[in-house]
Amino acid sequence: MGLIDDKSIFTAMKQNGPFAVTDDLMLGSHITPQTRAWARLFRNDRLLATKYRVVRAQIFDFLDIEGFDEIPGLLADPAARERRSERACALLGSQFGIVGNSAEIRSNLKAYAHTADGVISLLSGKVLSRYAIHVETSNEIETTHDPVELLLRVFDGRFSVKARFEAKRKLVLMGLAGSIDQRERETDIENKFNTFLEFLNGNVWSQEHKIGHLENAYLLSRHDPDDFRCLEVRVVDPAERTRLSELREGEKLTLLKRRIFQDGGRNIPVYVSVRKKDSAAKVLKLLRKNEKNPAVAVDDELGLMAVLDRIGDVKRFVRHLTRAAIKSGSFMTLEDISDTLSGGQYHGKNIGSSGQTPMLKFFARMGGMRVELIIHTNQSYLNYLFQRDIAHDEYEVKRIFDSGVAEFLFPNDIYNLDMAQIRQTLLEQFRRRIEESGRLHEHIV
Fold this sequence. Notes:
alpha+beta
Protein backbone atom coordinates (compact mmCIF):
# COMPACT_ATOMS: atom_id res chain seq x y z
CA MET A 1 0.00 0.00 0.00
CA GLY A 2 2.98 2.29 -0.63
CA LEU A 3 0.87 4.87 -2.43
CA ILE A 4 -0.83 6.03 0.78
CA ASP A 5 1.61 4.99 3.50
CA ASP A 6 5.10 6.13 4.51
CA LYS A 7 6.54 4.59 1.32
CA SER A 8 4.54 6.90 -0.96
CA ILE A 9 6.64 9.03 -3.27
CA PHE A 10 3.71 11.46 -3.64
CA THR A 11 4.40 13.31 -0.38
CA ALA A 12 2.49 16.44 -1.34
CA MET A 13 -0.75 14.48 -1.85
CA LYS A 14 -0.96 12.84 1.57
CA GLN A 15 -3.77 14.09 3.75
CA ASN A 16 -1.83 13.03 6.87
CA GLY A 17 1.29 14.88 5.73
CA PRO A 18 2.65 18.43 5.85
CA PHE A 19 0.79 19.49 2.69
CA ALA A 20 -2.64 18.23 3.79
CA VAL A 21 -5.49 20.44 2.60
CA THR A 22 -7.46 21.63 5.62
CA ASP A 23 -9.72 24.50 6.64
CA ASP A 24 -6.81 26.15 8.45
CA LEU A 25 -4.68 28.11 5.98
CA MET A 26 -1.37 29.29 7.44
CA LEU A 27 0.22 31.63 4.88
CA GLY A 28 1.77 34.20 7.21
CA SER A 29 5.45 34.32 8.17
CA HIS A 30 4.82 34.68 11.93
CA ILE A 31 5.19 31.82 14.41
CA THR A 32 1.86 30.99 16.04
CA PRO A 33 0.68 28.26 18.43
CA GLN A 34 -0.96 26.60 15.39
CA THR A 35 2.26 26.56 13.35
CA ARG A 36 4.22 25.21 16.35
CA ALA A 37 1.70 22.41 16.80
CA TRP A 38 1.85 21.65 13.06
CA ALA A 39 5.67 21.50 13.13
CA ARG A 40 5.68 19.14 16.11
CA LEU A 41 3.72 16.59 14.09
CA PHE A 42 6.59 16.08 11.64
CA ARG A 43 9.76 17.11 13.47
CA ASN A 44 10.86 13.54 14.24
CA ASP A 45 10.70 12.40 10.61
CA ARG A 46 13.88 13.73 8.98
CA LEU A 47 13.05 12.38 5.53
CA LEU A 48 9.58 13.88 5.57
CA ALA A 49 11.00 17.22 6.71
CA THR A 50 13.48 17.14 3.81
CA LYS A 51 10.70 16.31 1.33
CA TYR A 52 8.64 19.16 2.73
CA ARG A 53 11.47 21.66 2.22
CA VAL A 54 11.99 20.40 -1.35
CA VAL A 55 8.31 20.72 -2.27
CA ARG A 56 8.05 24.11 -0.56
CA ALA A 57 11.06 25.38 -2.54
CA GLN A 58 9.47 24.12 -5.77
CA ILE A 59 6.27 26.02 -4.97
CA PHE A 60 8.23 29.22 -4.33
CA ASP A 61 10.32 28.78 -7.49
CA PHE A 62 7.25 28.06 -9.60
CA LEU A 63 5.39 31.12 -8.36
CA ASP A 64 8.56 33.27 -8.26
CA ILE A 65 8.04 34.22 -4.61
CA GLU A 66 10.10 34.06 -1.41
CA GLY A 67 7.43 32.87 0.99
CA PHE A 68 3.82 31.82 1.47
CA ASP A 69 2.96 35.28 2.75
CA GLU A 70 3.31 36.62 -0.82
CA ILE A 71 0.47 34.44 -2.11
CA PRO A 72 -2.41 36.74 -0.99
CA GLY A 73 -0.83 39.54 -3.01
CA LEU A 74 -0.71 37.33 -6.10
CA LEU A 75 -4.33 36.34 -5.63
CA ALA A 76 -5.29 40.00 -5.66
CA ASP A 77 -3.15 40.98 -8.69
CA PRO A 78 -4.32 39.52 -12.06
CA ALA A 79 -1.40 41.12 -13.96
CA ALA A 80 1.15 39.52 -11.63
CA ARG A 81 -0.55 36.15 -12.03
CA GLU A 82 -0.43 36.49 -15.82
CA ARG A 83 3.33 37.19 -15.70
CA ARG A 84 3.84 34.17 -13.44
CA SER A 85 1.76 32.08 -15.84
CA GLU A 86 3.87 33.05 -18.86
CA ARG A 87 7.06 32.30 -16.95
CA ALA A 88 5.74 28.96 -15.68
CA CYS A 89 4.61 28.01 -19.19
CA ALA A 90 8.15 28.44 -20.53
CA LEU A 91 9.66 26.52 -17.60
CA LEU A 92 7.27 23.59 -17.99
CA GLY A 93 7.79 23.52 -21.74
CA SER A 94 11.51 23.11 -21.17
CA GLN A 95 10.98 20.51 -18.42
CA PHE A 96 8.86 18.26 -20.63
CA GLY A 97 10.85 18.86 -23.82
CA ILE A 98 8.03 20.64 -25.65
CA VAL A 99 9.31 22.43 -28.73
CA GLY A 100 7.31 25.46 -29.85
CA ASN A 101 6.06 28.88 -28.91
CA SER A 102 3.98 29.83 -25.88
CA ALA A 103 0.69 28.92 -27.57
CA GLU A 104 1.98 25.46 -28.53
CA ILE A 105 3.28 24.84 -25.01
CA ARG A 106 -0.03 25.93 -23.52
CA SER A 107 -1.83 23.57 -25.87
CA ASN A 108 0.23 20.69 -24.49
CA LEU A 109 -0.37 21.79 -20.90
CA LYS A 110 -4.10 21.93 -21.60
CA ALA A 111 -3.88 18.36 -22.96
CA TYR A 112 -2.19 17.31 -19.69
CA ALA A 113 -5.06 18.93 -17.79
CA HIS A 114 -7.58 17.00 -19.89
CA THR A 115 -5.68 13.78 -19.12
CA ALA A 116 -5.82 14.62 -15.41
CA ASP A 117 -9.57 15.15 -15.66
CA GLY A 118 -9.76 11.96 -17.73
CA VAL A 119 -8.27 9.92 -14.88
CA ILE A 120 -11.15 10.92 -12.63
CA SER A 121 -13.69 10.45 -15.43
CA LEU A 122 -12.30 6.98 -16.19
CA LEU A 123 -12.88 5.87 -12.61
CA SER A 124 -16.23 7.63 -12.12
CA GLY A 125 -17.52 6.24 -15.41
CA LYS A 126 -16.43 2.67 -14.78
CA VAL A 127 -15.32 1.20 -11.45
CA LEU A 128 -16.87 3.97 -9.37
CA SER A 129 -19.88 4.65 -11.59
CA ARG A 130 -22.27 4.03 -8.68
CA TYR A 131 -20.51 6.80 -6.78
CA ALA A 132 -19.96 9.20 -9.68
CA ILE A 133 -21.85 12.05 -8.05
CA HIS A 134 -19.71 11.70 -4.91
CA VAL A 135 -16.36 11.86 -6.71
CA GLU A 136 -17.07 14.33 -9.50
CA THR A 137 -14.61 17.21 -9.72
CA SER A 138 -15.71 20.73 -8.82
CA ASN A 139 -16.60 22.77 -11.92
CA GLU A 140 -14.16 25.52 -10.93
CA ILE A 141 -11.27 23.04 -10.99
CA GLU A 142 -12.28 20.94 -13.98
CA THR A 143 -12.50 24.02 -16.21
CA THR A 144 -9.12 25.39 -15.09
CA HIS A 145 -6.06 24.33 -17.08
CA ASP A 146 -3.43 26.91 -16.12
CA PRO A 147 -0.93 25.38 -13.64
CA VAL A 148 -0.32 28.70 -11.84
CA GLU A 149 -4.03 29.27 -11.33
CA LEU A 150 -4.44 25.71 -10.03
CA LEU A 151 -1.54 26.06 -7.60
CA LEU A 152 -2.82 29.36 -6.27
CA ARG A 153 -6.26 27.86 -5.69
CA VAL A 154 -4.67 25.32 -3.35
CA PHE A 155 -3.88 28.31 -1.09
CA ASP A 156 -7.03 30.35 -1.76
CA GLY A 157 -9.32 30.32 1.27
CA ARG A 158 -12.30 31.37 -0.84
CA PHE A 159 -12.44 27.83 -2.23
CA SER A 160 -13.76 24.83 -0.31
CA VAL A 161 -11.41 22.20 1.07
CA LYS A 162 -12.64 19.79 -1.60
CA ALA A 163 -11.94 22.22 -4.45
CA ARG A 164 -8.50 23.08 -3.06
CA PHE A 165 -7.61 19.38 -2.76
CA GLU A 166 -8.81 18.77 -6.31
CA ALA A 167 -6.64 21.62 -7.59
CA LYS A 168 -3.60 20.00 -5.97
CA ARG A 169 -4.59 16.56 -7.25
CA LYS A 170 -5.01 17.92 -10.78
CA LEU A 171 -1.51 19.42 -10.69
CA VAL A 172 -0.01 16.10 -9.59
CA LEU A 173 -1.87 14.20 -12.31
CA MET A 174 -0.86 16.81 -14.90
CA GLY A 175 2.77 16.26 -13.95
CA LEU A 176 2.41 12.53 -14.54
CA ALA A 177 0.62 13.20 -17.84
CA GLY A 178 3.53 15.42 -18.90
CA SER A 179 6.07 12.69 -18.13
CA ILE A 180 3.99 10.20 -20.12
CA ASP A 181 3.70 12.56 -23.10
CA GLN A 182 7.47 13.12 -23.07
CA ARG A 183 8.06 9.36 -22.95
CA GLU A 184 5.63 8.78 -25.85
CA ARG A 185 7.41 11.36 -27.97
CA GLU A 186 10.78 9.80 -27.15
CA THR A 187 9.58 6.29 -28.03
CA ASP A 188 7.46 7.40 -31.02
CA ILE A 189 4.60 5.26 -29.74
CA GLU A 190 1.94 6.66 -32.10
CA ASN A 191 3.86 5.66 -35.22
CA LYS A 192 4.74 2.30 -33.70
CA PHE A 193 1.08 1.58 -33.03
CA ASN A 194 0.18 2.37 -36.63
CA THR A 195 3.11 0.25 -37.82
CA PHE A 196 1.88 -2.65 -35.69
CA LEU A 197 -1.63 -2.41 -37.16
CA GLU A 198 -0.14 -2.35 -40.67
CA PHE A 199 1.91 -5.45 -39.81
CA LEU A 200 -1.21 -7.31 -38.67
CA ASN A 201 -3.28 -6.27 -41.70
CA GLY A 202 -0.53 -6.91 -44.22
CA ASN A 203 1.03 -10.10 -42.88
CA VAL A 204 -1.07 -11.78 -40.18
CA TRP A 205 -4.72 -11.71 -41.21
CA SER A 206 -6.08 -13.54 -44.24
CA GLN A 207 -5.70 -11.59 -47.46
CA GLU A 208 -8.90 -13.17 -48.77
CA HIS A 209 -10.91 -10.64 -46.76
CA LYS A 210 -10.98 -6.86 -46.69
CA ILE A 211 -9.20 -4.99 -43.90
CA GLY A 212 -11.39 -4.94 -40.81
CA HIS A 213 -13.45 -7.98 -41.83
CA LEU A 214 -15.05 -9.66 -38.80
CA GLU A 215 -17.17 -12.79 -38.43
CA ASN A 216 -19.68 -13.17 -35.60
CA ALA A 217 -19.53 -16.24 -33.40
CA TYR A 218 -21.09 -17.06 -30.04
CA LEU A 219 -19.62 -19.02 -27.14
CA LEU A 220 -22.30 -21.03 -25.34
CA SER A 221 -20.78 -22.04 -22.03
CA ARG A 222 -21.74 -23.88 -18.85
CA HIS A 223 -20.25 -22.80 -15.53
CA ASP A 224 -19.58 -24.43 -12.16
CA PRO A 225 -22.10 -23.25 -9.54
CA ASP A 226 -19.41 -23.02 -6.83
CA ASP A 227 -16.82 -20.76 -8.50
CA PHE A 228 -18.39 -20.12 -11.93
CA ARG A 229 -15.38 -21.48 -13.83
CA CYS A 230 -16.11 -22.67 -17.34
CA LEU A 231 -16.87 -26.40 -17.42
CA GLU A 232 -17.57 -26.66 -21.13
CA VAL A 233 -17.95 -24.38 -24.12
CA ARG A 234 -18.92 -24.72 -27.73
CA VAL A 235 -19.02 -22.28 -30.64
CA VAL A 236 -22.47 -21.34 -31.90
CA ASP A 237 -22.93 -19.75 -35.31
CA PRO A 238 -25.42 -16.89 -35.90
CA ALA A 239 -28.02 -19.23 -37.39
CA GLU A 240 -28.07 -21.45 -34.30
CA ARG A 241 -28.04 -18.38 -32.09
CA THR A 242 -31.41 -17.30 -33.53
CA ARG A 243 -32.91 -20.61 -32.47
CA LEU A 244 -31.87 -20.22 -28.81
CA SER A 245 -34.71 -18.96 -26.64
CA GLU A 246 -33.47 -19.19 -23.06
CA LEU A 247 -30.31 -19.98 -21.11
CA ARG A 248 -30.34 -22.54 -18.34
CA GLU A 249 -28.96 -21.93 -14.86
CA GLY A 250 -25.18 -21.40 -15.02
CA GLU A 251 -25.07 -20.84 -18.78
CA LYS A 252 -23.62 -17.80 -20.57
CA LEU A 253 -23.74 -16.67 -24.19
CA THR A 254 -20.79 -14.53 -25.28
CA LEU A 255 -20.49 -12.78 -28.62
CA LEU A 256 -17.06 -12.67 -30.29
CA LYS A 257 -16.25 -10.79 -33.49
CA ARG A 258 -13.41 -12.82 -34.98
CA ARG A 259 -10.77 -12.34 -37.64
CA ILE A 260 -9.25 -15.07 -39.83
CA PHE A 261 -5.66 -16.18 -40.31
CA GLN A 262 -4.48 -18.99 -42.55
CA ASP A 263 -2.16 -21.79 -41.49
CA GLY A 264 -1.43 -24.93 -43.51
CA GLY A 265 -4.27 -24.18 -45.89
CA ARG A 266 -6.78 -23.83 -43.03
CA ASN A 267 -8.80 -20.76 -42.10
CA ILE A 268 -8.52 -20.35 -38.32
CA PRO A 269 -10.75 -17.85 -36.49
CA VAL A 270 -9.35 -15.66 -33.71
CA TYR A 271 -10.91 -12.93 -31.61
CA VAL A 272 -8.39 -10.11 -31.25
CA SER A 273 -8.30 -6.95 -29.19
CA VAL A 274 -5.43 -4.60 -30.06
CA ARG A 275 -4.83 -1.59 -27.87
CA LYS A 276 -2.52 1.31 -27.19
CA LYS A 277 -2.86 2.21 -23.54
CA ASP A 278 -4.22 5.76 -23.34
CA SER A 279 -2.69 8.49 -21.20
CA ALA A 280 -5.28 8.33 -18.41
CA ALA A 281 -4.77 4.57 -18.06
CA LYS A 282 -1.01 5.10 -17.94
CA VAL A 283 -1.39 7.69 -15.19
CA LEU A 284 -3.43 5.19 -13.16
CA LYS A 285 -0.75 2.57 -13.67
CA LEU A 286 1.94 4.96 -12.40
CA LEU A 287 -0.18 5.55 -9.30
CA ARG A 288 -0.74 1.83 -8.74
CA LYS A 289 2.99 1.27 -9.01
CA ASN A 290 3.79 4.25 -6.74
CA GLU A 291 6.07 5.46 -9.52
CA LYS A 292 6.61 8.72 -11.44
CA ASN A 293 8.81 7.38 -14.24
CA PRO A 294 6.76 5.84 -17.10
CA ALA A 295 9.90 4.22 -18.53
CA VAL A 296 10.02 2.05 -15.39
CA ALA A 297 6.33 1.40 -14.68
CA VAL A 298 4.62 1.27 -18.09
CA ASP A 299 6.06 -1.60 -20.13
CA ASP A 300 2.84 -2.60 -21.93
CA GLU A 301 2.02 0.46 -24.05
CA LEU A 302 1.22 -1.77 -27.05
CA GLY A 303 -0.80 -4.90 -26.49
CA LEU A 304 -2.72 -7.64 -28.24
CA MET A 305 -5.10 -10.16 -26.71
CA ALA A 306 -6.14 -13.15 -28.81
CA VAL A 307 -8.73 -15.87 -28.17
CA LEU A 308 -8.70 -19.14 -30.12
CA ASP A 309 -10.82 -22.28 -30.02
CA ARG A 310 -8.19 -24.68 -28.65
CA ILE A 311 -4.58 -24.97 -27.50
CA GLY A 312 -3.50 -26.37 -30.86
CA ASP A 313 -4.74 -23.18 -32.53
CA VAL A 314 -2.86 -21.10 -29.97
CA LYS A 315 0.40 -22.80 -30.99
CA ARG A 316 -0.39 -22.25 -34.66
CA PHE A 317 -1.12 -18.58 -34.04
CA VAL A 318 2.17 -17.95 -32.24
CA ARG A 319 4.10 -19.72 -35.01
CA HIS A 320 2.12 -17.76 -37.61
CA LEU A 321 3.12 -14.48 -35.90
CA THR A 322 6.84 -15.30 -35.96
CA ARG A 323 6.67 -16.31 -39.62
CA ALA A 324 4.69 -13.18 -40.47
CA ALA A 325 7.41 -11.07 -38.82
CA ILE A 326 10.05 -12.74 -41.01
CA LYS A 327 7.83 -12.08 -44.03
CA SER A 328 7.68 -8.39 -43.08
CA GLY A 329 11.48 -8.23 -42.86
CA SER A 330 12.02 -8.47 -39.10
CA PHE A 331 13.02 -11.22 -36.70
CA MET A 332 10.62 -11.70 -33.76
CA THR A 333 11.83 -12.80 -30.34
CA LEU A 334 9.50 -13.80 -27.50
CA GLU A 335 10.45 -12.49 -24.05
CA ASP A 336 9.18 -12.93 -20.46
CA ILE A 337 7.09 -15.96 -21.41
CA SER A 338 4.58 -17.42 -18.93
CA ASP A 339 2.31 -20.28 -20.01
CA THR A 340 -0.45 -21.60 -17.76
CA LEU A 341 -2.87 -22.76 -20.46
CA SER A 342 -1.64 -26.32 -20.04
CA GLY A 343 -1.32 -26.20 -16.25
CA GLY A 344 1.00 -24.54 -13.78
CA GLN A 345 0.51 -21.26 -12.00
CA TYR A 346 1.10 -17.68 -13.03
CA HIS A 347 2.79 -15.65 -10.32
CA GLY A 348 1.38 -12.22 -11.08
CA LYS A 349 3.33 -9.23 -9.81
CA ASN A 350 0.45 -6.77 -10.08
CA ILE A 351 -1.75 -5.92 -7.10
CA GLY A 352 -5.14 -7.59 -7.44
CA SER A 353 -4.03 -10.19 -9.97
CA SER A 354 -4.70 -13.88 -9.43
CA GLY A 355 -2.26 -16.77 -9.77
CA GLN A 356 -5.17 -18.90 -10.99
CA THR A 357 -5.55 -17.06 -14.31
CA PRO A 358 -4.68 -19.43 -17.19
CA MET A 359 -3.13 -17.74 -20.22
CA LEU A 360 -0.12 -17.59 -22.49
CA LYS A 361 1.62 -14.27 -21.95
CA PHE A 362 4.79 -12.87 -23.47
CA PHE A 363 6.34 -9.80 -25.04
CA ALA A 364 7.11 -9.92 -28.77
CA ARG A 365 10.04 -7.79 -29.89
CA MET A 366 10.07 -6.97 -33.60
CA GLY A 367 10.46 -4.03 -35.96
CA GLY A 368 11.68 -1.72 -33.20
CA MET A 369 8.57 -2.48 -31.09
CA ARG A 370 7.91 -4.46 -27.93
CA VAL A 371 4.31 -5.69 -27.82
CA GLU A 372 2.61 -7.48 -24.94
CA LEU A 373 0.59 -10.50 -26.10
CA ILE A 374 -1.96 -12.35 -23.97
CA ILE A 375 -3.45 -15.43 -25.61
CA HIS A 376 -6.42 -17.48 -24.42
CA THR A 377 -8.45 -20.47 -25.46
CA ASN A 378 -12.22 -19.99 -25.44
CA GLN A 379 -12.40 -21.70 -22.06
CA SER A 380 -9.61 -19.71 -20.38
CA TYR A 381 -11.04 -16.48 -21.82
CA LEU A 382 -14.44 -17.20 -20.31
CA ASN A 383 -12.73 -17.84 -16.97
CA TYR A 384 -10.97 -14.49 -17.40
CA LEU A 385 -14.39 -12.88 -17.87
CA PHE A 386 -16.51 -14.77 -15.37
CA GLN A 387 -14.72 -16.99 -12.80
CA ARG A 388 -14.88 -15.88 -9.18
CA ASP A 389 -11.71 -14.16 -7.90
CA ILE A 390 -10.35 -14.13 -11.47
CA ALA A 391 -12.92 -12.20 -13.52
CA HIS A 392 -11.52 -9.03 -15.05
CA ASP A 393 -14.26 -6.80 -13.59
CA GLU A 394 -13.31 -8.02 -10.11
CA TYR A 395 -9.63 -7.51 -10.89
CA GLU A 396 -10.33 -3.91 -11.93
CA VAL A 397 -11.96 -3.25 -8.56
CA LYS A 398 -9.24 -4.97 -6.54
CA ARG A 399 -6.33 -3.22 -8.19
CA ILE A 400 -7.88 0.23 -7.78
CA PHE A 401 -8.70 -0.30 -4.10
CA ASP A 402 -5.93 -2.66 -2.95
CA SER A 403 -3.20 -0.50 -4.50
CA GLY A 404 -4.47 2.51 -2.54
CA VAL A 405 -5.39 4.50 -5.66
CA ALA A 406 -9.03 4.99 -4.60
CA GLU A 407 -8.08 6.36 -1.18
CA PHE A 408 -5.25 8.41 -2.71
CA LEU A 409 -7.51 10.18 -5.20
CA PHE A 410 -10.60 10.36 -2.98
CA PRO A 411 -9.43 10.54 0.66
CA ASN A 412 -12.06 9.86 3.29
CA ASP A 413 -11.69 13.20 5.09
CA ILE A 414 -12.53 15.02 1.83
CA TYR A 415 -15.11 12.74 0.20
CA ASN A 416 -16.54 10.88 3.22
CA LEU A 417 -16.43 7.52 1.43
CA ASP A 418 -15.66 4.22 3.18
CA MET A 419 -13.42 2.64 0.55
CA ALA A 420 -13.31 -0.78 2.23
CA GLN A 421 -17.10 -0.99 2.21
CA ILE A 422 -17.33 0.31 -1.36
CA ARG A 423 -14.80 -2.30 -2.50
CA GLN A 424 -16.91 -5.11 -1.06
CA THR A 425 -20.15 -3.65 -2.46
CA LEU A 426 -18.69 -3.36 -5.95
CA LEU A 427 -17.30 -6.91 -5.91
CA GLU A 428 -20.71 -8.24 -4.92
CA GLN A 429 -22.40 -6.11 -7.60
CA PHE A 430 -20.11 -7.36 -10.37
CA ARG A 431 -20.51 -10.94 -9.22
CA ARG A 432 -24.32 -10.72 -9.28
CA ARG A 433 -24.23 -9.20 -12.76
CA ILE A 434 -21.88 -11.89 -14.06
CA GLU A 435 -23.87 -14.80 -12.69
CA GLU A 436 -27.35 -13.60 -13.60
CA SER A 437 -29.31 -16.20 -15.54
CA GLY A 438 -32.80 -17.10 -16.65
CA ARG A 439 -33.37 -14.96 -19.71
CA LEU A 440 -31.24 -15.00 -22.86
CA HIS A 441 -28.47 -12.46 -22.37
CA GLU A 442 -25.47 -11.92 -24.60
CA HIS A 443 -22.19 -10.85 -23.07
CA ILE A 444 -20.63 -8.68 -25.77
CA VAL A 445 -16.88 -8.04 -25.91
